[in-house]
Each structure stands twice: as C-alpha cells, then as structure tokens.
Design brief:
- The complex is a heterodimer of chains A (1042) and B (201).
- Chain A contains 33 helices and 41 strands.
- By secondary structure, chain A is of the alpha/beta class.
- In chain A, the strands form twelve sheets. Chain A has a seven-stranded mixed beta sheet, with helices on both faces. Chain A has a six-stranded mixed barrel with strand order 22-27-24-26-25-28.
- In chain A, α6 runs parallel beside α27 (819-827), α12 (326-342) runs antiparallel to α13 (354-361) and α12 (326-342) packs parallel to α15.
- Chain B has a domain at 53-79 and 114-199.
- The chains are: A alpha/beta (1042), B mainly alpha (201).
- At the A-B interface, β2 and α31 of A face α5, β1, α7 and α11 of B.
C-alpha cells in the first residue's frame, strides 16, 4: 500500500501494518533489486549450507533420510506390478461393551500442569487416545484447551519414553526389573525407618490431594523426613506476599471478567500465568464488541509493563517495554499516585514519584503515562485489577513487587471483588526457599535417600550436580532418562497422565479426576504405585489413612487407593449424600466435582515487606521467560510443540536473544547474527531476533531449550539459559547484568512469518474503540482504492441448497496463543517437518497465526490473524488445477481430493492467502514406532507429492451430519458442530456454522458492521470473515482519512 | 522416408500399418495390464475357517445384523468378535474340527485372522450406517451372500460404480422410494451427495 501510494507521492510513508522491520525502510519498497528478490520463491536464501544444517540436525531427529526416499521410489517402481497384498481383519475375542469399532468414545480426565491444570475430554478410538478437547463442565477449561495441553497427547506416544525401569552407572543406563528395584529400595527403606537417616522427597508442587496425602503418610514412617515442593514457576513470591500482607498462605484467584481496567507487571496472564486458559477466556469476555449500538460499546482497558514481548503484552491496549526489575519501580510509582489520591501514607515508596521513576527506567515510559495509569485505575476502583510476576519479573525485587501489587489492589478496593484471596484460592504449594535448604542438606551429606518426581533440577540448576553427588541413593521418577535421571541411581519409569489414575485439585472449589484412557505402553508405574508398593512391602508404619488402606488391600494399586481416599476424604466434603459409588461414578463421568466458596475481604498490612530504594540502572539486563506452549523444557521432545511458532516472533525449534531494534542498530547487529552473552564466568552464544517493542537495555531469552537428554527430537534445540538465573541465596531468573558482543557468525532461525509477504496489501484491519463507537463499518477504515466494488462475473454462481459452511474470526479476541494450530495438527494428521524445512518455508500447518505489527518499531501494536484456507467462492486454486483435484463442493467447501492431486503446485502459487501446503517428502515416515498410534483414523495420512490444506474439518461435518440423521433430525443444530480450531480456542474467537441459516451464530457474526475479508479486492469472496481488531486507546486514526 | 515408402506397394503399406497398429495396441494393453485393476471384483480367497454364509445367512436365516453389529452404528459393519460365534457354538456342532479350532482360539484369547475381501483404498471413507438407514440392502454391494459358501467380491466397488448409485442411475427402486426421490429425464436422481469430500478427506 505504501509503495503504490508512493508512485504518485514523493514522500515515503511507512506502511500501517508491517511484518518485518525492513518494511519500514524506503529502500524495501522503492529499490528494484529488492522487489525482484521478493518475487523469488525463497525470500531469504538459507544462510547456512546444507552440510551445516545437517550437522545441527544430526543432533536432533534424523529427518533428512534420502535413502528412504530413494528406496521408496524404487519400491514403487517394482511393486506396481504386484497384486494387492492380502490384508487381514482381526476381530476382538471379547468385545468390550462400550467399544464399537469406528465410533469414538470420550472420557473426562484432567491435564496435569500445576496451577494451569485443566479439565479435558479424551477422544479414544478402539482404545487409543487420538485427540484431547477441553471439558466444557470444568470451570478452568469451559471447553477450551491450551496449545501445551493439546500437544501433551503426542507425549503419550513418544518413542523415547522409558519402557522399563533403569539402573544408572556412570551416566549409562541399563534396564532392570521392578522386583530387583523393589528389593533394593525396600531394604533401604527398612533400615532408614529404624535409624534417623535423612529421607527427602523433591517433587513439583503436587496438585493431587491423594498423592499429597500419600507422600505425607509415607514420610511419617521416618524420623528425619521431609517433602519439598518446588518448580521454576511455582509462584511462591505471590503466595508468600499474600501471607506477609494478608496472613493468608495461598495464591488468590483473579476475576479478569469483572475488571474494567487491568494492569499487569510482567504477568503473562493470557498465555502462561497461573490459570491462563481460564483467564484468557475471562479477559476476552469484556473485549467482545457488537456493532449494533456501537456508540455504547464498552471494552476493558489493559495496561502491560513487561521486559519481553508476551502474548499478554502484544494484546494489551497499552504496552510499555521496561527492563527486568523495573516492574517494581513502575508499580511503586503507580502506588505512589494512588496513595496520594486515596489519602494514604506514601512513605513506603516516597522515592518513587512518577517523575523519578520515569527518569530511572529510561526507555519509552514517561511520568505522564504513569499518572495516566494511576488516574484510570483510580476511576475504576473496585472494577480494576493489578497483577504481576512471571519468570521475566522474577528478580530480586519480586517480593516487593508483589507487596506493592497487594497494596494497589487493596487501596483500589479490588480486594473481595476482582481479587479473591479467601474463597476460591489456589491450593498448590511450592517454595524455592525449601529447595535451596534441601540442596544445602544434600551437599553436607545429611540426605540418605532422595526421591525426585515430576521435576528436572539436573537440567535447570547448574549447582545440582555437585549437591546430588553426596546423596548415596537417588531415585528419579520420570518418563525418560533425563538430565536428573543421569545424575541419579535408579530411574523409575513412570506413566503418562493418560495412562494413570489420579486426582487434581487446583483451587478450593474444583476437584477433578484423572483416569487412564489406555493401558500403559511400557512396564511403567506411577508415583503413587511406587509409594504404596514400597510401604506395603517394607511394612512401614505410615500415616493413618494409608495404613488403614494398606491393611485392607493385599495388592495396593493407585486406583483402589484413590477410591479409598475419595471415600474417606473427598466424599464427606464434596458429596451430597447421594452415596459414595454414585458420587464417584458421576464425578468420573463428568470429570469434576464443584462446590461453592465464599469470597471475603482481607485487610492489607505491609508486614515484613521492605520496598528497596529506587536505583537507576544503565547496564544491559537479561530477562528469562517461558514460551507458554513450551514451558520449562519438560515437553522438549514434543515435535508438535517444538514446531509451533512462538506467537510473537513466529520462530520455531530454537530459542534466541530478543533485542530492541534501536540497540541492534547501535551495535550493528542484524537478525540471525550470533551474539555472545557473558556475565562474570558465565557465557553463552545465541542467535538474535530483533524484536520490536523491547526495552533498549534488555535481552530476553526463552527457557527450556538446550536439553541434552530430552530425546531424539528435543536434544540440541536451542541453548540452556537457566545457568544465567540465580541459584544461590535466592532463586531468581531475571535481572542479571550482562554484556553482549557480536561473534561475526550467523545462524538462521526458523521463523514462519516472513515466508510470505503482503506486498502492502491490506490483509488485516484494526481501529480504536473511539473509531468503532463513531462508525464501526469496516470499509470506513480501509483504503478506498483497495475495497471491493461489485464486479461483473463470468462464472456461474454456485448454488447451495442445503448447508453452506462459513467461519467468522474475531481478531479482537484472538490472542495468538496457537492452541488452534496444535488442535488442527492433532485432528488432521498434520506432520512435523523439522527445522531446516521450516527455514525454506515448507511447514505444513493448515492454520497459522500471522502476526502483524502496527506503528513504531519501539512501541508497536500487534494484531494476530489466524489464517487457514478461506474456502473462497471464486477460488483461484480451483481454476488452475489441471486435474480437477481441487473443486467446489455443494456445501461451499473448497475440496481437495488427495488421490487426484499430481502435485503441480499451481493451486498454491495461485492462492493469494498462501493457505495451501505441499508434501515435499513422506513426512509420515518420521513418525516412528508408537508415534504411529497418534494418527486420526478419520483423516487420510498424506504422502509425498500431494497438496493439502484446511478442510473445515470435513470429517467432523460428515460425522455430525451422520449423528443428526441417526437421531432422526434433518438439520444440524447450530453449535453442535465445531471445528478443531474453534473447539479449543480459549477466547472463542472462532465461530463456524451454516451461513444459509440466518439465525446461526456465524451468520450473526458475519452481519456485524466491522466484518471485513482479507484481500477482498481480489474478489475471491472468502467464506472466512474477520471482525476488525478494536483497541481501547485514544490515539490512532492512522487510517480512514484517505 | 518418402523414397522408402515409394518403393513399397499400397498393400504392403496397408499391411504394415495394420501390424504396426496391432503391435502398438499390444504394447498399450501390455502396459495397462501390468498395473493392477482398480477393482478386486472376483477376489475369492481361502479363509482360516471355512465359514459358510450360505449356511448361516441362507439356510439358517440368521440376520446379517446379528453378527455385523456395527453396520447400524458405525462406519464399519465389523467382523463379529469371537464371543458372538461362541454364543451358539458352545453347544452347536462342537464335534466339528473347525469349531474346535474356533473354541481353542477363543479359549487362548487368540483371535482368528480372517482374510479381508471388501477393502476400499485408504483414501476412501465409506460409512455403512447411512446406507443401511436409507434402506440399501447388504446384497446391493456385497452380492448374493446367502448363496455363497465362501465369500467373494461380487461387485466392482469402484468410484464410478458408487457414483452411479449416488446419482440415481443404478439406485434400487426401494431406496428411491424410501428417500422420496424420482428419476429425471436423464435417468438420474439426487440420491446422495457426490462431492469429493463425501468420501475423500
């Protein structure tokens, strides 16, 4: 759009929306050479040679298997003359009553992930789970599911999971039998029970009440025993500050849907903080606007101060980049203003006047901005919410930050309204202080037996190895020989959550069950299995509940223990005197039991909190953060999650150093340059991502990468940055002062955005709330010469007598989280292609979430756009296919018949949305061993040479129609049929349905005045409509004036 | 070239053309016959147990759905699980060596591996249920099962064959009546969808 305008105007005007930084320079648009370059298939030539790429990949998955491909073509040439192979049908011996071959069964269970644990429905076919969906009855899910949870399905079939327990000797492992291990452990436990040797359990914070009780009971058999719960993201700063300021030792629950003004200091609550799926949904509720009565339209206003660009920041109305550690300064300055307005003493932060803070944090934040935040917050007393903390805000100031936030919420009267600190609070524990104490005990030889479960300190903590070397017996309960297991003595192969029984309590009001949906693939045992078994075999004098269970059960199992625990402990509190068996069956079927809690108001006091004095920094700082879908590296061997692009940078398969454009320019650093980061004796090398919206003095890097014992997929991706956290007196992750230096080398990051360019054509639309209120009509906000006028057509119009499928996507709700991408991948058998193929633009995702920047490179606005096949009415792919492999169906679907496709790729070249994907290789061959069980039997597994793309989940359409017919209905009910992307979306951004029905949800959405179609000037008439992104900010008016 | 042709008589040229065409045809037919037919019509394999549909469905008139329970509920008609066989054969004809083989396999929990006859390619998703509910008889696609001792594939099961029925050309009259459809002048009726994605996805 910019260069087209420039042909008649001399002055260069930056494009309103841009993908990459170079689009902001005049030469990109004007220079003939770069235009020619843009016309080429590969916009950027791979920086490295193939040999270099191979060298990297040889550490990871063996993907480049040319011999296989050659072999396959030889086999095809010779086999084509043979008769078809004899195939067998093998019936059940005794068919389970609930199984009908070809008909899926759904089981309610729980995805276990600390505070983010959420209810799921497991879709199984013939006894194997093939898809996870959110459980609509579960309050933290409400039908939605995060990308990480969607991806956890592939973890079940990970061929690198242990199939049997192992013994470790000098970093090598050898398989053992359970009876051998039991013998060794039991004799050890017996001797420890009589003496006073130190028994320590180190686990991730246990969300399971039954496992928690079992651990307590088990440890009662020993005189010197302790259970330590810890994880890198266990929110203990948040919990401890509650104890300090209010006397309540638990993490409060937050009501984002009740808040009109939300301020976050580093907390990525949309995507990765506490209970993100639930919070994203709640947050988006107040962000949906209707064009009917638009003058009255209301939206919540979100302010985010953060040191790295997260989905929360990029979705906020106002985002300010700050350096890690300065969260406290800004929060205190806001508190200073609020305290003045409220007439409360400001003595706690007298140094933190907005002016002083604005000067100290440098960057883009002014005193005016801070005052404005305070003013908005004060005006919305009781309807506002302040939150903070996350890895990137976990600095030495973390406790003071939380105290300041508590002060703010109390002074703003949010306590008891948007903040629930007494009723439905989180029930998980976890303490880094305990962890550090344990490490000291280990190092001084006071620990005789250490059991580790659900945690990988050997990978995270660089000081772990020295400490654990002093422990004579280390048992690691894990599903693979990971870094911690290598430093232990016995590796106790554990179940995947989909193979195990269990329970989860995330908050006071929610109790849910975990049930196995497949028999264990290997000879594995759960954590509970182990403890019960040992307690029984060693005859330990364990706590009362477990003791009484063991006395009546000869062969203890997790299942019977769980049921016993629920009968004795859960049913009396949660049941409604319906009888235990009925309560158990109902909870198992529904997946969750609920009860009501009462929300009260607490009184704030500063307690022991001291606000440190304001410091002005000038050093470069390091911020660590977790990519929400990837987390702390526990899912590193999950190829779906590795290949899911980071929402903001769109980079896959690696972590990288985010650097502000201004800093990069100053230091002469370009995208993909490798830099050296040093701090004292610590040193690492990282490729650079020049990230708009970073503070000039901050480098941010994602954690969880650089594992060496994750498995074939996860090994050798990225760099481990945990050593740059602080592990001595206090565990903090961000705020370390660092130096950076160019190395002169380059490393091509595998980013997916940038494979296609918009060439300045308007593909998205965003306006401010004020513009929306004045005139919501989308065409008032797009360039007039790019709007579609009615065009005469030479084609006969399609007729849709029955259904006509269409979709509407609300860009205002889409947070870019990527859950839809993984859900689509699981549903539609979409393969993973690997890093080097992503580099050359050959990723296979049918739905992608494009990210566009708007405005300045220092403080950009961000728009996310989920884009899949648009099922165009005048589809440009259909007219060019020489073999009629892609045709228009009678229900408006653009259909792709795989077996007709000969792979000319004409359709893909002609698709303006670049929504089509071509199989350059037989990607399914990379699915080794048990991974083949993950395929959805209702969708073809595509082979080499085939074009594919979004089908609007036609298998779901067909099956829903079939079910309706079976029930004797002629028409589907609206909302009965959901596509995989729609089903999993935490913010309900996607609506799908029959547009022939004027009353359907999708028709209603399409009637909104702020609907637009991407690239509508091309007259493709897409069946996917987008609702304009609306921002609650005053300035803007970048458009609509043409 | 022309000079060579000039030396030949007309009949020689005609003969040459005739044989040339024959050779050409033979090559084409040869190449085509190298590739397997799209249809396995007539496939007649041996089964591990000589189960007779003629006896069960024909003589004894056992309803197809008694054993093939999936047919009204699922994509797959499904081969009956062995406990269904044993419902009767616990008492019926227990002296037959074949039944003894069946009983032994059942006792050992080792299912019989039947040879699959009606098999569509992997990229076809055929759903039995709607066909049954529309009143399509089993025999329409599977032939006269009641007369078969050993089952064979009696119909081509090719895409064209499917489409002829979906378009109404070969649809059994009973099915047309059930669905309330009538053939037009072109001999076709809108019996069932003919989109690619009806079966291919």
């Amino acid at each position: 759009m910019a260069h087209q305008k420039n042909s008649d105007q001399k002055k260069f005007e930056k494009p309103r929306h841009w993908v990459a930084l170079e689009e902001l320079s005049e030469s990109y648009w004007g220079d003939g050479g770069s235009q020619e370059k843009r016309g080429q298939e590969f916009l950027f030539k791979p920086v490295e040679t193939i040999a270099n790429i191979d060298k990297i990949d040889s550490k990871g998955m063996a993907r480049r298997d040319f011999l296989t491909v050659m072999g396959a073509s030889m086999a095809m040439a010779s086999l084509s003359c043979a008769r078809r192979p004899v195939s067998k049908i093998i019936p059940y011996v005794n068919k389970p009553e609930e199984v009908t071959p070809g008909v899926p069964n759904f089981y309610a269970s729980t995805f276990v992930d600390g505070t983010a644990s959420t209810g799921i429905l497991v879709k199984t076919r013939e006894g194997r789970p093939i898809k996870l969906e959110g459980n609509p009855d579960h309050p933290t899910s409400l039908g939605a599911l995060s990308a990480k949870a969607q991806g956890s399905l592939l973890g079940l079939y990970d061929p690198d999971r242990l199939r049997a327990p192992q013994k470790v000797q000098s970093f090598r492992t050898a398989p053992m039998t359970w009876s051998e291990i039991d013998q060794t452990v039991v004799s050890r436990l017996k001797s420890l029970a009589v003496g006073d040797g130190g028994v320590r359990f180190l686990t991730a914070p246990l969300v399971s009440p039954s496992a928690s009780r079992l651990t307590q009971d088990f440890l009662q058999a020993f005189k010197n025993a302790k259970h330590v719960e810890w994880d890198v993201e266990c929110f203990d700063d948040l919990r401890l500050s509650q104890k300090d300021n209010y006397g309540t030792d638990s993490i409060p629950n937050y009501h984002f849907d009740r808040a009109d003004v939300i301020v976050s200091f580093g907390a990525n609550f949309i995507d990765g903080w506490l209970s993100p799926t639930e919070y994203a949904k709640a947050w988006s509720k107040n962000r949906k606007v209707k064009s009917e009565d638009s003058a009255q339209a209301k939206m919540s206003e979100t302010y985010v101060f953060e040191s790295t660009m997260t989905p929360t920041g990029s979705n906020a109305d106002h985002r300010y980049a700050i350096a890690p550690g300065d969260e406290l300064s800004v929060a205190a300055a806001v508190a200073y203003e609020i305290a003045r307005k409220a007439g409360v003493s400001t003595s706690a932060f007298s140094e933190y006047s907005p002016e002083a803070v604005a000067a100290a944090v440098d960057g883009f934040l002014t005193a005016k901005d801070i005052k404005k935040v305070a003013k908005t917050l004060w005006a919305a007393r009781g309807r506002s919410l302040v939150v903070g903390g996350s890895l990137n805000a976990s600095t030495k100031n973390a406790h003071a930050l939380q105290a300041t936030i508590n002060f703010l919420n109390s002074t703003l009267e949010n306590e008891g309204k948007t903040v629930d600190g007494t009723g439905d609070v989180f029930t998980v524990g976890g303490s880094s202080e305990d962890y550090l104490k344990l490490k000291k005990e280990m190092a001084s030889g006071k620990v005789d037996l250490l059991v580790i479960s659900g945690l990988n300190p050997g990978y995270m903590d660089p000081t772990w190895e020295a400490a654990v070397a002093k422990v004579p017996m280390v048992l690691v309960v894990t599903d693979r020989v990971d870094e911690t297991a290598k430093l232990g003595h016995y590796v106790l192969a554990s179940h995947h959550a989909l193979e195990a029984w269990g329970d989860v309590q995330v908050r006071k009001s929610i109790m849910s069950l975990v049930q196995p949906t497949i028999a264990p693939l290997g000879d594995t045992r759960s954590y509970e299995d182990l403890l019960l078994n040992w307690a029984s075999k060693a005859g330990l004098r364990v706590g009362t509940l477990t003791q009484s269970y063991l006395s009546q059960e000869k062969e203890p199992t997790t299942h019977t223990y769980l049921k016993y625990f629920w009968k004795k402990e859960v049913y009396p509190e949660w049941g409604h005197s319906e009888g235990f068996e009925i309560f158990w069956e109902n909870t198992l079927r529904k997946g969750v039991a609920n009860r009501t809690t009462k929300q009260g108001v607490r009184k704030f006091s500063w307690g022991r909190t001291k606000i440190p004095s304001l410091k002005k920094n000038s050093a470069m700082k390091l911020a660590l953060y977790e990519m929400a879908h990837y987390g702390d590296g526990a899912h590193a061997n999950n190829a779906w999650l590795q290949e899911l692009p980071d929402p903001v940078s769109s980079i896959t398969w690696d972590n990288f150093a985010n650097i502000a454009p201004s800093t990069a320019k100053k230091m002469g650093i370009r995208q993909d340059d490798v830099i050296e980061v040093t701090s004292g004796s610590l040193r690492m090398e990282l490729p650079v991502n020049v990230q708009p919206g970073m503070h000039p003095r901050t480098i941010s890097v994602a954690t969880g990468y650089g594992r060496f014992a994750a498995g074939r997929v996860g090994n050798g991706t990225g760099v481990n940055v945990y050593p740059f956290a602080s592990w001595d007196e206090e565990v903090t992750f961000s705020g370390r002062e660092i130096d950076i230096r160019k190395t002169g080398r380059r490393y091509q990051l595998a980013a997916v955005q940038g494979h296609h360019r918009t060439e300045g054509r308007p593909i998205i639309n965003d306006i401010t709330l004020e513009e929306f209120q004045n005139n919501p009509k989308a065409e008032n906000h797009t360039d007039p010469h790019l709007r579609l006028k009615t065009v005469p057509t030479m084609w006969t119009q399609h007729k849709y007598p029955g259904y006509r499928w269409g979709m509407a996507i609300d860009l205002n709700s889409c947070t870019g989280c990527g859950a839809c991408v993984v859900a689509c991948q699981a549903e539609n058998n979409i393969p993973v292609v690997g890093r080097d193929r992503v580099r050359v633009g050959r990723e296979m995702h049918w739905i992608r979430v494009d990210r566009y920047y708007a405005g300045s490179e220092d403080q950009p606005d961000v728009v996310y756009q989920p884009l899949m096949c648009q099922h165009c009415e005048n589809a440009s792919c259909e007219t060019v296919c020489p073999v009629l492999a892609t045709v228009h169906g009678s229900e408006g679907l653009n259909e792709q018949a795989y077996n007709r496709c000969v792979g000319t790729r004409y359709c893909s070249n002609n698709c303006p949305y670049k929504a089509r994907r071509f199989n350059f290789f037989d990607h399914w061959k990379d699915y080794k061993d048990s991974m083949n069980l993950v395929w959805n039997p209702d969708v073809t597994v595509r082979s080499r040479g085939i074009m594919e793309k979004c089908t609007f989940c036609v298998q779901r359409i067909n099956s829903a129609k079939d079910i309706a017919k079976k029930d004797g209905r002629r028409k589907l009910r609206d909302g009965e049929l959901k596509t995989a992307c729609q089903q999993t979306c935490p913010t309900d951004a996607i609506t799908f349905g029959n547009t022939n029905d004027a009353n359907s949800m999708v028709s209603q959405q399409k009637k909104e005045k702020h609907v637009f179609h991407s690239l509508e000037i091309l007259n493709n008439l897409p069946q996917v409509s987008y609702l304009t992104k609306v921002r609650n900010k005053e300035e803007g008016a970048h458009h609509g004036k043409h | 070239m022309l000079s060579i042709l000039g030396k030949l008589t007309k009949s020689q040229i005609r003969l040459g053309l005739f044989f040339g065409t024959l050779v050409g045809l033979a090559i084409v037919v040869g190449i085509v016959s190298l590739f397997p037919s799209a249809s396995d019509q007539g496939y007649y394999p041996e089964q591990p147990i000589p189960f007779s549909h003629k006896l069960h469905a024909g003589t004894n008139k056992i309803d197809c759905k008694y054993c093939h329970v999936g047919v009204t509920r699922s994509h797959h008609a499904s081969i009956p699980p062995m406990n269904v066989c044993m419902n009767c054969h616990r008492v019926v004809k227990t002296d037959s060596p074949h039944i003894q083989k069946l009983a032994r396999a059942y006792r050992d929990g080792k299912p019989i591996e039947w040879v699959r006859i009606h098999r569509l390619p992997d990229h076809v998703f055929f759903n039995h249920r709607p066909h049954i509910s529309a009143g399509v008889s089993c025999e329409t696609c599977h032939g006269d099962i009641k007369e078969m001792d050993r089952i064979y594939q009696s119909k081509p099961l090719t895409m064209g064959w499917c489409l002829n029925c979906h378009r109404g050309e070969t649809t059994p009259e009973q099915v047309l009546e059930n669905l309330g459809k009538k053939r037009g002048k072109d001999g076709r009726a809108d019996v069932a969808p003919v989109n690619c994605s009806t079966c291919h996805y």
